[in-house]
Amino acid sequence: MAEFSGEPRGEGRRIVVVASRFNEGVTVPLAEGAVSALVGKGVAFDNIDVLWVPGAWELPVAVRRALSSERYDAAVAVGAVIRGDTPHFDIVAGETARGLMEASRDFDVPVTLGLLTTDTLEQAEARAGGVHGNKGADAALAALEVLDLFDRALPANDYDEDGE
Fold it and tell me: Which sequence ranges are marked TM in the entry?
């Protein structure tokens, strides 16, 4: 049996961080945490782009557009959806996560989820550089780890259109 895992190595990588402006008191630290983690693992600062979108709902379409450019090795999506008194939370959180997963699947590129879905602002702040760490940084490190795993164990196939 063979076992493989990746390490969060950033040298030579080009990463896009797509961040939601809504709840910016939380999302700015998430985006900053992602960028800091990427640079800390060797991604050149000039190889990181940060795209700001209005809200979490717009994260999937922006990630798809970024990946369609073929400029990026991975995407890190960060945002915060905080529960209110209506079912809006469930729709936005679920469909945003689904859209990001579909982008990853469709483009065969890691898209990591730094989307906080919390009941309160305090819970979100605790996960955006507070007592529970920075989930933007965690998502960035996960992207690098998956890329390294792919390099080590799951290289892309160079098939022609006939699958040969």
Answer: none
Which CATH number characterizes residue 99's domain? 3.40.50.960
CA torsion 148→96→82→23, rounded to 10°?
A: 80
What stretches in the chain show pLDDT beneath 70?
157-164
Residue 159 CA neighbour count, 13 Å, CB half: 7
Give the chain's domain count.
Answer: 1
Active-site option among 65, 71, 88, 98? 88
24-49 pLDDT tens trace: 999 999 999 999 999 999 999 999 99
Q: Which residues sit in the known binding site for (2S)-2-hydroxy-3-oxobutyl phosphate?
A: 85-86, 127
159 inside domain: no
**Residue 132 bears catalytic tag:** no
